[in-house]
């Protein structure tokens, strides 16, 4: 894929320690993993976000991959659109080079899927981003958290911490999702989908 400017990778979540390990914050956890593996620190940005500039993945011949900004909004989930649109403007990134990483109830826990565009599936963070941008045509990395058990309300489920069993597998899920982000920006959507969606 040709490198025609930077990408913006945003992990959705809620701010503060009370939410840090919630299922709803898995998008932010993936961005933290990307920052960790590239040895950069997310720093406060005037766009109401924590952000860092990196080069994601490895291109042909082992050269560093595309330039990217990885970021986590510093506001609540349902206000994510403001920081995302401000970051796009600040770093001159078009919406088609935006990647939003988010939790997904409609995917089995541990599953990672890539897509571009489509609906928000009741996800308040995606709804806010789409509303602020005036388009749904951006990339999403969907990180499966599964459906709530029994009659538990979905809103309660996503705002609870991962269970002890889920926590054992969480590092692998974050690693897979971070790999999916890097594949997307290096290979493009279709080739990355073939790699990420392939049965194991």
Automatic annotation (TrEMBL):
- PROSITE patterns named in the record: PEPT_TRNA_HYDROL_1 (PS01195), PEPT_TRNA_HYDROL_2 (PS01196)
Q: Which residues hold tRNA?
A: 19, 76, 78, 124
Q: Return one GO MF term.
A: hydrolase activity
EC assignment: the record states 3.1.1.29
Localization per Swiss-Prot or TrEMBL: Cytoplasm
Question: Matching InterPro entries, A to Z?
Answer: Pept_tRNA_hydro, Pept_tRNA_hydro_CS, Pept_tRNA_hydro_sf
A Pfam family recorded for this sequence: Pept_tRNA_hydro
Location of the active site: 24
Keyword presence, tRNA-binding = yes
Main location group: cytoplasm
Q: Which UniProt keywords apply?
A: Cytoplasm, Hydrolase, RNA-binding, tRNA-binding
Q: Which SUPFAM superfamilies match?
A: Peptidyl-tRNA hydrolase-like
Please indicate which superkingdom the organism of origin belongs to.
Bacteria
According to UniProt, the reaction catalysed is: an N-acyl-L-alpha-aminoacyl-tRNA + H2O = an N-acyl-L-amino acid + a tRNA + H(+)
The positions annotated as site (Stabilizes the basic form of H active site to accept a proton) read 103
In chain numbering, where does the site feature Discriminates between blocked and unblocked aminoacyl-tRNA fall? 14
Q: What does this protein do?
A: Catalyzes the release of premature peptidyl moieties from peptidyl-tRNA molecules trapped in stalled 50S ribosomal subunits, and thus maintains levels of free tRNAs and 50S ribosomes. Hydrolyzes ribosome-free peptidyl-tRNAs (with 1 or more amino acids incorporated), which drop off the ribosome during protein synthesis, or as a result of ribosome stalling.
Family in the record? Belongs to the PTH family.
What PANTHER family is this protein classified in?
PEPTIDYL-TRNA HYDROLASE (PTHR17224)
Q: How does it assemble?
A: Monomer.
Would you tell me the protein name for this molecule?
Peptidyl-tRNA hydrolase
Q: Which organism is it from?
A: Fodinibacter luteus
């Amino acid at each position: 894929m040709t490198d025609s400017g930077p990408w913006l990778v945003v992990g959705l979540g809620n701010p503060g320690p009370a939410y840090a390990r919630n299922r709803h914050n898995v998008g932010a956890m993936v961005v933290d993993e990307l920052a960790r593996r590239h040895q950069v620190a997310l720093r406060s940005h005037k766009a109401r976000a924590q952000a860092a500039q990196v080069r994601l993945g490895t291109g042909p011949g082992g050269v560093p991959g595309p330039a990217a900004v990885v970021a986590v909004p510093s506001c609540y989930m349902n206000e994510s659109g403001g920081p995302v649109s401000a970051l796009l403007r600040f770093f001159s990134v078009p919406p088609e080079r935006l990647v939003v990483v988010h939790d997904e109830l409609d995917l089995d826990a541990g599953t990672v899927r890539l897509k571009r565009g489509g609906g928000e599936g009741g996800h308040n963070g995606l709804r806010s981003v789409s509303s602020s941008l005036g388009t749904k045509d951006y990339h999403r990395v969907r990180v499966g958290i599964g459906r709530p058990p029994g009659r538990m309300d979905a809103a309660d489920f996503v705002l609870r911490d991962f269970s002890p069993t889920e926590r054992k597998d969480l590092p692998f899920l974050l690693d897979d999702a971070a790999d999916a982000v890097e594949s997307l920006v290096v290979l493009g959507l279709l080739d990355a989908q073939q790699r990420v969606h392939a049965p194991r």
